[in-house]
Specification:
single chain, alpha/beta, Nucleotidyltransferase, domain 5, Rossmann fold, five-stranded mixed beta sheet, 30 helices
């Protein structure tokens, strides 16, 4: 495979009167540059703007040979060859007019325009200029507006286009082939550069999967996607791989990772539901089909697991079948995955009460004092994860590990972030500090329930409860009904209102500390944990209410009173402390760019130099229909909630299928739920996280209804009869009155950017 990459620098844009001042070509053979040529050309006049753009001085040009000495050799070398140029008509026109002025005939050259091909392959790009493409494709950044580095960059760009060509939709390939000469068509048909052996292996592997995994279909876009994942794993760097629906990105990143692990890897998903889907469906199928001997692990947050010490304590409170199940849990807890609460205990209402009593909590952990230390599910799960080659986590846990400076996951070289468009939100939530009267109440209830009666300071505890009730009443009067920011001055007002509660919490902490000497072993360890929790609670309350930091401080009353301190900018922190310790990062999603640009994501996450590739959505056979109910009341009209509830009831009774409704607000979901019978209905508000609601819905027989919020809008698959009717209660546009949205808009305007 041979071609020449050409670039000219000129004194202007008009080939009829302007001159060529520099010529360079690079001969590529089998995917590598083998020969280079570059020369300056003497010109009659060098415009100042061209001198500034190229850095070429008039003195250097005066010593250069005239075009009459240079051009015959250049044309002779390019005659009959495939010559690629970025905006080839421009270079061709200059050579043609220059040859005519010298009385030379332009030989037959098979021209290929990399600019036109780039626009066909990557139509979403805002800029197809050579410097922009060189940056986004990860090509080496060298001196711009000089002929030799630009010629070499053009050659490498053409190699990228050759690599992408086989995976394009058929109409796009046909369009490109019509615009290039026959010899160049043969290069495109070959469809790969030197080193393409790995792509052949990928093709063979995906063909194997289509035979071994029922329902799997080989897709060209998926092969192209997998090839880029393979490159990222091999070469390192940050890759933003935007893959539309139907591309098959999950297998696209799992296959290269399982075939040739390039260091310890973490796969992070947006939700625990998608995390479970990867762990229970996709990974086992691929590991079996590929016979991949790779150690893998699933890890969730500490409080997703049961505490065997608490389980033993609480076991006597239950009887019958549930008591038997508890005993089975104790015998099975050796398996870290079995230690997941809802995997063990199921989803019935009685279980949900038990779960909170036996849930593992970091501050309740007895550590080395625990008699069940060797069988502790969260500790075993973490140890298993730290020993695994591939760990499946969720974004929340990924952020928690960042805050713990790697203390949860350990060191890893590769990160694959699925649904990566939600990473900024995950970091924003993970870095947010918050406090609520409900947090205080939960801790007080825990102290009463978990500590031995003689260790509970009743007088101090009653004082905290009484002051907490008074504070709730004061805050209800002070706070606006809708979420709103508060200033330093307003924060001091809130802090003043909470000061008596803070003093009483400190007094409760002191009383617990005084009683420590009378406790031993497990009881002393538990009391120490509650003391630490009280200290942290007071610290958070003082910081968040005082509103002294650089965060956005805001409050809400629904579903409960809560105060927040949310950072608006954390990209610099991630650039310094997160991305630098990861050799290869692959961020993938169906929506990473806006208008073909990824500036927002790059800025929010502090990514620096990232390579962005887009893989178009694959057209599928239409299996459903979309209905827009124009006769229906609008979401802001008074009768909308009642009409929606009635529609759900009629759909359930008429079709007897499984239905999901997606809401953008808890308030509307709650209002609809109140109008529906409890039987056969799951509300996400009734579950501590979305994954539990999803699993409960899967376990139900039709007809059934699932009422879901934002965490169910994406990343969860319901194949076949698991979900057959979907209702969207309201399109998920951000609320312009949201205090965080308003603060971000102000920040962007201050930076001279358009918030929309």
């Amino acid at each position: 495979m041979e071609f020449f990459a050409l670039d000219l620098e000129t004194t202007g844009l008009d080939p009829r009167k302007d001159e060529i001042l520099e010529i360079a070509w690079v001969r590529f053979l089998e995917g590598k540059p083998r020969e280079r040529f570059q020369t300056l050309v003497r010109v009659a006049f060098l415009p100042k703007e061209v001198e500034g753009l190229t850095g070429i001085s008039p003195e250097r040009l005066r010593r250069a040979p005239p075009l009459s000495e240079v051009l015959p050799g250049v044309l002779g070398r390019l005659a009959g060859k495939v010559v690629v140029a970025h905006n080839a008509p421009f270079d061709r026109a200059f050579l043609q007019h220059a040859a005519a002025r010298l009385g030379l005939e332009l030989p037959e050259i098979h021209w290929v325009d990399t600019l036109a091909i780039s626009r066909a392959i990557w139509p979403e790009r805002e800029s197809h200029a050579l410097p922009a493409l060189r940056e986004v494709l990860g090509l080496e950044a060298r001196e711009a507006h000089r002929a030799l580095p630009d010629a070499e960059a053009t050659g490498y760009l053409f190699l990228e286009e050759l690599a992408a060509f086989p995976y394009l939709p058929e109409p796009t390939r046909a369009f490109i082939l019509r615009g290039v000469p026959l010899p160049a068509r043969e290069l495109l048909a070959a469809g790969r550069k030197e080193g393409g052996r790995e792509k052949t292996v990928l093709e063979e592997v995906f063909s194997l999967l289509s035979r071994k995994i029922p329902g799997f279909q080989l897709r060209k876009a998926q092969l192209g996607y997998a090839a880029w994942v393979e490159r990222a794993l091999r070469e390192g760097g940050v890759y933003l791989l935007e893959a539309g629906p139907g591309t098959g990105k999950t297998y696209g990143y799992l296959v290269p990772l399982l075939l040739a692990p390039e260091g310890r890897a973490v796969i992070s998903t947006r939700t625990k539901a998608l995390q479970d889907q990867l762990w229970h469906r996709d990974l086992p199928a691929l590991r079996e089909a590929l016979r991949a001997d790779v150690r893998v692990a699933l890890l969730k947050g500490f409080d997703n697991y049961l505490c065997p010490w608490a389980l033993e304590r609480e076991g006597g409170l239950f009887s019958g079948s549930l008591r038997k199940r508890i005993q089975e849990c104790l015998s099975e807890v050796e398996n870290p995955e079995v230690g997941e609460l809802y995997k063990i205990l199921g989803f019935d209402p009685e279980t949900r009460v038990l779960v909170e009593r036996i849930r593992a909590r970091p501050h309740r952990c007895l550590g080395r004092e625990c008699p069940f230390l060797s069988r502790c599910p969260p500790r075993r799960a973490r140890r298993s994860a730290q020993e695994a080659e591939i760990v499946v986590v969720n974004h929340s846990l990924l952020v928690a590990d960042f805050l713990a400076e790697g203390g949860i996951l350990g060191e890893y070289e590769v990160l694959i972030a699925d649904e990566a468009h939600s990473l900024p939100k995950a970091f924003e939530e993970g870095l947010t500090r918050s406090i609520s009267p409900a947090d205080v109440a939960a801790l007080l209830e825990e102290i009463e329930a978990m500590l031995p009666p003689q260790a509970v300071p009743r007088r101090e505890l009653r004082g905290v409860w009484a002051e907490l009730r008074r504070l709730r009443e004061r805050l209800h009067a002070l706070l606006p009904d809708e979420p709103a920011p508060y200033s330093r001055r307003e924060g001091l007002r809130f802090l003043s209102a909470a000061q008596e509660l803070i003093w009483r919490l400190v007094a409760l902490k002191g009383a617990l500390e005084e009683g420590l000497s009378a406790l031993e072993g497990e009881e002393k360890g538990m009391a120490s944990g509650e003391i630490a929790a009280l200290e942290n609670l007071v610290s958070e309350m003082e910081y968040v209410l005082a509103a002294e930091g650089e965060e956005v401080f805001w409050s809400e009353k629904d579903p409960d009173i809560r105060f927040y301190a949310t950072p608006l900018e954390f990209g610099d922190r991630l650039a310094a402390d997160f991305w630098g310790r990861i050799r290869a990062a692959i961020l993938t999603s169906a929506t990473l760019s806006v208008g073909g640009r990824v500036d927002f994501l790059v800025r929010e996450l502090g990514l620096g130099n990232a390579i962005h590739r887009v893989f178009p959505a694959q057209e599928k056979e239409r299996r459903g229909r979309v209905f827009l109910l124009e006769f229906f009341p609008g979401p802001n009209e008074g009768g909308y909630v009642s009409a929606l509830a009635q529609l759900l009831l009629e759909l359930r009774e008429r079709f007897r299928r499984k239905i999901m409704v997606l809401f953008t607000s808890r308030k509307m979901l709650r209002a609809v739920r109140e109008r529906l019978p409890q039987e056969g209905m799951i509300s996400q508000l009734d579950w501590s996280d979305a994954a539990q609601a999803v699993e409960a819905f899967r376990a139900m027989d039709a007809p059934a209804i699932l009422l879901g919020l934002d965490s169910l809008w994406e990343g969860v698959d319901f194949p076949g009869e698991e979900l057959e009717i979907l209702l969207v209660a309201r399109l998920p546009f951000p609320n312009p009155a949201d205090p965080l949205i308003k603060a971000k808009e102000e920040r962007l305007r201050a930076q001279g950017l358009d918030p929309f």
